[in-house]
Each structure stands twice: as structure tokens, then as C-alpha cells.
């Protein structure tokens, strides 16, 4: 674990460097010390040799033994011994090196040391020599320096000063100990330094790592303290700056996203985002409504909403051509215009965005405007041509009997009344639509009012074999502020419609009750019903759902449009529910509150 931290690596590196440096230093120093110690010992021993030579040379008259004692004293100071060879005589120092094996024969046979005896030259040698100490033979490393001497009597010889190398070695061992101590101390210091660095550099770095992880999780409020004024401190400052900028950018991004989402949610048009696999990625409520309606129409499980096939096809076309495409899709009787545009990720198409507009009203309005003139002329043409035909028949005396003439005149009267009614209704509608009319509200006793309206139809229902019920107990005896003529007009149309669309033995029921201070009126029938696709349009002028109507039962298609205007003028609403083949219920409310009037 420690090797994975910067501090661990730093520590290991420093220790490695220190170890290598110390190793080399130790090697070189030891080499150097050894050389210089031996050199020093060599020089000292040579000096002793020279001194001994001088003592021997100037020892005129004095005892040889005294001179040798002096030489021994000098050698003893340096822990050394000597062997003096003059002619056949051999003297040895207090350590008796000559007896131990370094005898005349030894010096004479050694090629280097012989130089002092024979060639009158100083000779020195380091080596392992066999010595016999206390009758035990052992190898000993010695430094031997031979100096040629001349006695006062002029005899030549040589003095060999002998010192065990061990003495020089002792100094070296001391130096080694010192170096080891230094190495130990520096490793200790390095470790301490590494831990100091660990708190100084490592802990701010660790804190920054923690903060970075937090920022990655979306927590932008975290800051790292700037403790030092070095690179680590600069890094902390840079980190804090980065965090602040990130926060600002993220906030801006989120705001933009919210704005866009808000716009999308409140758009009247539907917007759909689909990926290349035609999966819906994003949508707004109108688009969801479209997709839901399509799935409903195609009997798909509402829990598993699917992308409409038309959109899949359109996506295929858009992906192939790479350009915007438009298509009209009809769902549940409504017409949607879909404009789809490809979305690019650099050069690759990554999906498409579709804008959906419900064009049902516009299409219908266009149709209505076109058909209005046609409708009016058509409605007028039938009575006019009938009137023309019958009046011609009367003029040409085609009718034989007076009764026949009377019947013809009756038809002309009926048709002219029908024309009059149409014109009146048109005028009425024009007035209602432009708002140029006044309600004449009065307090009306509701029981009497409904009974009067229903009674008007008694003959008609009797002829048609239909039962007409009035469930008005809940409002009987109560008064309500309304325009009786206008409301009667609405009721008359609704009951008339119901009777006209109900077969023999059917039932038409009128019901009234109060709810939430509103007067609710229902006109139910067990008639033929209205087809699903016609329901949204029955309140439009000239709209006739039963296109195959029989001549006798034909109306103008203006009744419900007028009724809608009258109800709305009373601050109420009118609606219809119907199941084809089972019956229809028209329902409208009336309000007494004049503030809700139009
Ligand atoms: N109770 C009903 N059952 C079935 N269809 C109905 C019913 N009421 C209305 N409709 C349909 O709605 C259409 C519009 O009705 P509306 O009252 O506006 O016109 P109309 O009855 O044809 O003519 P008008 O009332 O002007 O004489 C009718 O033509 C009919 O197709
Ligand atoms: Mg009608």
C-alpha cells in the first residue's frame, strides 16, 4: 500500500540513493584509509630503520647492546619489532621476530627484502608470513621495511622493521563503524523526512482526491483548504477555481434544461424525441396524448405504450433521406400533422424530433367555411324546388280535385314555413354568434315550465309510439332565474332530436336536478345513438350525423349549435354522451349567477 503513495516512493528513492552513495563512499574511503594508513606506517617504519641505521653508525665506543636497546625503545613506541642483520650476526627486537621465523635465511631468500641486504636499497613488503609463536605456526599479515645500515666499524647489513598490519587495520575498523553509524542515522532522518512530507504534501493531496470524488458525485459545495504556498497550494487554488466554474456551468445547464422542459410542457403542439430504434426518449403532454390515443385505437396494452407505426415508417424515411418529412396521421377521429426532422451526431443520425399538431379544428373550420354556402343553398333549394313544382302544377291545373289542390297548397305552405324556420334559425345563430342579443331572464317555476315543454310533444310521441318521461320531482316547486323562451328552444330541440332518433317503443326521458347551485338538465333516449367520430362535431352548424336521413325527419342541422350558444349565454355548459345503437344523453347546466353570463 505504501508503495502506491508518492511519499512511499519518495522515501524508498531517497533511501536507495543514500544507500548507494554511502556504499560507494565507504568503499572509496576504506580504500583511501587503508592506503594512507599503510603508507604512513611504511614511512614511520622506514624512519625507524633510518634512525636505527644512524644509531648504529654513530655508536662509536658505546656498547652494541645499548644501541640495540635504544632501537627497541623506538620500535616499541610504534608497536613494531625489528631484526638487525650485520654479516653473520642477527639481532632481534623484544618481540623476537627472528626466533618466530623471520630469520636471516628468510630475508636472504625473499626477492624484495633481499634488496636491503645486498643492493643497499630500502625495501618494503606487505604479506602473509608464517610465524611460530609459542610453538604454534600461524599466518600473520605483516608490513616489513628493510633499511640498509652500516656499523661504526664500517660493516654493511640491514635492519628490518616489522609491524603487524592489524594495527593499521584497527584504525580502519573505527572508520567503518563511523560510516555505518552515519548510514543508520541518514536512513532514520530520511524516514522522518518522508513522514514530514507525507503530512505536508500527502494530506492536502488526499483531501483534494476526496473533494474531487465529491464533485464527481455532484456535490459542488465542497472546497479544499489552501494550506501551503507551493505547487500543492497552487493545485488546491486551481481545484477550487475549477469547482466554482463547474458549479456555475452546471447551474446554467440545469436552468436551461428546466426552461426547455417548461417550454416543452406548456407547448400546444406535441413534441416527441425518438432514437434510431424508434424508442420514445422524451415527450410532452400533447404528444403523450397522441401516442396514448394511437395505442388505444390499435388495442395495445395501455401499460406498454408503443411508438405508433406511422411514426416508425416516417422515421425510416427520414433516416434514409436525411431530410425533414411531413405526414398526416388520423387517430381517434382527430387529424394530426407530424413534421419529423433527423437529429445528427456529427455525421451520424442519432434519432429524430417530431412536432405534432392537432389540425382537426382547422381542417374542420376550412371544411365548414367551404360547406356553409353549399349547405345554405342546399337547404334552400329543396323547399324552393318543391314550391316551384307544386305552384306550377296548380297553375297548369294538373290537380283534378279541390282536395288535391288544397293538399298541394298545404305542401307549398309547409315548405315556405320550413324555409322561414331555416332563415329564422340562421338569423338567430348569426345573432347568437355575434353576441347581439339579450337574455330576458325571469324567475320561473321549474315544475310548470318542464311540464309545459313535455306536454307540447305528447301528440308527437303518441304518433311515434315512444314513451316520454319527465323526472322533475327534485325541482318541482322551485324557481330559477332563466330566459324561458330561450331555454324552451333548447329543450324543444333536444326532445325533438331524441324523438326523431328513437324507434317505436323507445323511451325519451327528461330529468332535472340541482347540483353545486347549478340546474342540471338531462335529455336521455334509447335511440340509435351517435357514431364516435361524429360526437365532437354535433354542436357545429349544419352538422348532421345521420347522413342517410329520411326527408320527413330532416332538420337543418342548426338546432344544437343554437342550443350551445343559449346554454353558454346562461353561464352553463352542454355535452353529449352516446353509444351507437344504445342511446344518447344530452346534458346541460344553467347558472343563476349573472357574473358567469357571457
Ligand atoms: N338524440 C339524438 N340521437 C341521435 N342523433 C342525434 C341526436 N341529437 C342530435 N343528433 C344528431 O345531431 C345532428 C345535429 O342536430 P341538430 O339538432 O343540430 O340538427 P337537426 O336536428 O338535424 O336540425 P334542426 O334541429 O336545426 O332542425 C342531427 O342531425 C343528428 O344527426
Ligand atoms: Mg334538432
Automatic annotation (TrEMBL):
Domain (HAMP): give its ranges. Answer: 199-251
- An example Gene Ontology biological process: osmosensory signaling via phosphorelay pathway
**Start and end of every Histidine kinase domain?**
375-594
Q: Which Pfam families match?
A: HAMP, HATPase_c, HisK_sensor, HisKA
Record keyword Coiled coil present = yes
Alphabetical UniProt keywords: ATP-binding, Cell membrane, Coiled coil, Kinase, Membrane, Nucleotide-binding, Phosphoprotein, Transferase, Transmembrane, Transmembrane helix, Two-component regulatory system
Its annotated compartments are:
Cell membrane
What class does this enzyme belong to in the EC scheme?
transferase
Q: How does it sit in the membrane?
A: Multi-pass membrane protein
Q: Where are the transmembrane segments?
A: 12-33, 178-199
Reaction(s) this enzyme catalyzes, per UniProt: ATP + protein L-histidine = ADP + protein N-phospho-L-histidine
Q: What would you give as a GO molecular function for this chain, any one?
A: protein kinase activator activity
Tell me which EC number(s) this protein carries: 2.7.13.3
The record's Gene Ontology cellular component field reads: plasma membrane
Q: Which residues form a coiled coil?
A: 236-263
Entries under InterPro entries matching the protein:
BphY/WalK/GraS-like, HAMP_dom, HATPase_C_sf, HATPase_dom, His_kinase_dom, HisK_dim/P_dom, HisK_dim/P_sf, HisK_sensor
Q: What is this protein called?
A: histidine kinase
Q: Which organism is it from?
A: Sporolactobacillus laevolacticus DSM 442
